Amino acid sequence: MSEPIYLLTIFLLPVTVLLIFAMRFVAQTKQAKLRQQSDDDYRQLAERSIAAQAETAAALADLKSRIITIEKILKEVE
Fold first, then answer.
1. Which DSSP letter does residue 1 get?
2. From residue 40, how far is each of 3, 27, 30 by CA, in Å?
3. Which residues cross the membrane (predicted)?
């Protein structure tokens, strides 16, 4: 067996193992970034939902006070 082929076969296994670990590391890093982005998107959606709910509650409270005022006026007219 020639020396270059022998050295190639000796170093091929560790290089392959290191390459696999590097690819797994990169994949896990990308997954973590995507998961973080997804969590941030859900957090923003929840914040917008809370703001919309607060606006709706304020609008309903305003409508309720107007309806009470209209009912009082109608009772006075009768």
1. -
2. 55, 20, 15
3. 6-27
- Exposure letters 24-57 (e unless 16+ CB within 10 A, then b): eeeeeeeeeeeeeeeeeeeeeeeeeeeeeeeeee
The Cα 46–Cα 43 span in angstroms is 5
Q: What are phi and psi of 37, to 5 degrees?
A: -65, -40
Section 33-58 average pLDDT: 97
Q: What is the rounded radius of gyration, in angstroms, for the C-alpha atoms of the chain?
A: 34
Higher-pLDDT residue of 37 and 7 is: 37
Tokens, residue 26: 């990169």
Q: Any idea of the CA torsion for 56, 58, 60, 65, to the nearest 10 degrees?
A: -170
pTM score: 0.60
